[in-house]
Amino acid sequence: MMLEELIVAGFGGQGVLSMGMTLSYAGMVEGKEISWMPSYGPEMRGGTANCITIISDKKISSPIISLFDTAIVLNQPSMDKFGPRVKPGGLIIYESSNVLKPSNRTDIEIVGIPAATEALLMKNAKIMNMIILGAYLHRKPVVSIAAVLEALKKVLPEKYHHLLPLNQQAMERGAALMNELAVPC
Q1: Total domain count for the chain?
Q2: What's the whole-number average pLDDT of the chain?
Q3: Whether the Cβ atoms of residue 102 and residue 94 lie closer than 8 Å to each other
Q4: Three-state SS string across 143-179, please?
Q5: Residue 43 predicted with pLDDT over 60
Q6: Rounded CA gap, 95 and 129, in Å?
Q7: Are 65 and 42 in contact (CB under 8 A)?
Q8: What is the CATH number for 157?
Q9: pLDDT band at 185 (very low <50, low <70, confident <90, very high)
Q10: Range of the domain at 48
Q11: What are residue 95's DSSP bridge partners?
């Protein structure tokens, strides 16, 4: 049985909610059961935001969970809040230029990805979340890149569809970074 309980957390404007929504749509494209539950403060941009995304091949009993298989963390407050809530044996992927003090847990895998720096090298700061998503899917292929690209066609307004190839390149770069930076399991 495949069940992935994931939290994506960071500042509003970093693509936190859209990353979770894109994963959810990709799960639907592949016929999986999904749950997507966003949470954000009134200040949205600049305030903290997170979303719980669950992808499963069986019915999901509850969208409310307090422990996670994986945490994708894009800022320090989110690391401090959600790092302790990853299940033993789980995974934290964090944006290494925004999180200066990663978790010191030894019972989980922790990988820092310099996605913000890479996005600037790729000349588009907005693809940082797709670089992180590519790193995550390389380690935990809960959905295919093809399904993510199909989902992006639904998530992105049509005027941004010309950016689909850049999003694919960003995910491929994230996968390569995960390969380079993660300790082999």
Answers
A1: 1
A2: 93
A3: yes
A4: CCHHHHHHHHHHHCCHHHHHHHHHHHHHHHHHHHHHH
A5: no
A6: 9
A7: no
A8: 3.40.920.10
A9: low
A10: 3-181
A11: 113
What pTM was estimated for this model as a whole?
0.93
Pairwise CA distance, residues 98 & 108, whole Å:
20
In the numeric block, which tokens belong to residue 76?
A: 């320090």
Q: Say yes or no to pLDDT of 71 above 90.
A: yes
| Percent of the chain topping pLDDT 90 | 83
100: phi then psi, degrees, rounded to nearest 5: -95, -20
Lookup result for tokens 């669950």: 54
Helix and strand numbers (H, E) in the chain are 6, 6
The token pair at 64 is: 């409310």
Q: What is the torsion angle, in degrees rounded to the nearest 10, for the CA atoms of residue 57, residue 154, residue 95 and residue 115?
A: 120
Task: Using the structure block, give the residue that is written with the tokens 């200066």.
Answer: 100
Q: What is the pLDDT of residues 108-149, one digit of tens each?
A: 999 999 999 999 999 999 999 999 999 999 999 999 999 999
CA 68 from centroid of its chain's CA atoms = 13
Task: Count the alpha carbons within 13 Å of 3 in the hemisphere toward its beta carbon.
Answer: 9
Tell me which residue has tokens 């999901």. 60
Amino acid at 91: L
DSSP 45: B
| Torsion (CA) 171, 164, 96, 75 in degrees, nearest 10 | -130
